[in-house]
From TrEMBL:
Residues 133-224 form the Acyl-CoA oxidase/dehydrogenase middle domain. One of its GO terms (molecular function) is glutaryl-CoA dehydrogenase activity. This is Acyl-CoA dehydrogenase. Residues 236-381 form the Acyl-CoA dehydrogenase/oxidase C-terminal domain.
Amino acid sequence: QDLFQSPDYYQLDDLLSEEHKMVRAAVRDYIKTEISPIIDKHCQQATFPSKIIKGLGNLGCFGPTIPAEYGGGGLDYISYGLMMQELERGDSGIRSTASVQGSLVMLPIYKYGTEEQKQKYLPQLARGEMMGCFGLTEPDFGSNPAGMLTYFEEDGDDILLTGAKMWISNAPFADIAIVWAKNETGKVQGIIVERGMEGFTSPETKDKWSLRASATGELVFDNVRIPKSNILPGAKGLGTALSCLSSARFGIAWGAIGAAMDCYDTALRYAKERVQFERPIAGFQLTQKKLAEMITEITKAQLMNWRLAVLMNEGKASAEQISMAKRNACITAIQIARESRQILGAMGISGEYSIMRHMMNLESVITYEGTHEVHLLITGMDITGMNAFK
Ligand code: FAD
């Protein structure tokens, strides 16, 4: 049974509009009724719960900030953040599916596509009638995507795409892939590759211990013939790919704290009920230290996320500010998951509770969309003006 009580120590709810609260309530309710009852089984069996796609589309979780004329929600960044927070409270894999679809598939088409491409893909993607994935990472180029080897050549009205992407969320079932590849002059461009194009395959990556309810795979392109009309004309240069990552990272900052809130809430309730040495373990100072530090860190991260959303709404947030929030949320959530698991003792490793699942998921969340180290170097470069990457 899902007993989640959302922690709000600094009364941040006072800063939310009625619309924000309605959006949050709708997603929270959906998680309670549709996700929590099935998610442990899907993680244990490493299967993606594909039947939820329609529900996520109906809830507006795909492309919440995309204008309504293209099927998006036309919502602000606080609503978007709250949606991601609630989805990841359910499971990071569910939030990942929504992040990829909205920020990494719909957003590049919306920002860099032609009017025809927008009309063709966005409404279907928003409803979940079509699913997408985002191929940037390659076997030999993760943190340094500029080195990518995937390339294309022009051939009349078509291009021929060759290369391979790895660790791609939603790849095994996606209908389209936004693929980043180098043109003949070495410049990175974004291309829409469609399922069924000859020479394009997407084998599933098996045996993951993290994000088990999310389907991850490779994208393999063996001289795939693609019409030039599938090139995103505005997506030129790696910076365009990275700008979509900024939107997804914003969602991760809120999402990871959703997972942390769930761990804290579970541990707090358990500690009040679990009796050892004839008293609830919540009465021991060592348990209180864990819980008090958790709620302090959650509150700090909630404030950071909220302020970041306001800056996003005003068009003033920098990529570096987003990096800081993503990094902070991921490390905070991982530490809270570990401490929460300790509080539950042996029960902490059981699928009966969500904590161990969150803890394993967060190991991916802290790595994808820029690792913990990469985001630290982004902050370092921003404050010193010196590039420590190379
Ligand atoms: P590497 O880049 O090889 O890094 C290994 C280690 O070295 C890390 O700790 C890193 O921080 C460190 N390191 C690297 N460079 C430096 C440096 N300059 N200074 C200090 N330390 C450094 N990618 C996509 O394109 N699309 C997706 O949908 C997607 N989904 C994913 C889903 C999952 C479950 C996972 C696990 C990954 C996914 N990724 C996706 C890939 C992800 O973005 C990469 O794994 C990530 O960018 C890191 O790349 P890497 O794994 O190659 O690690």
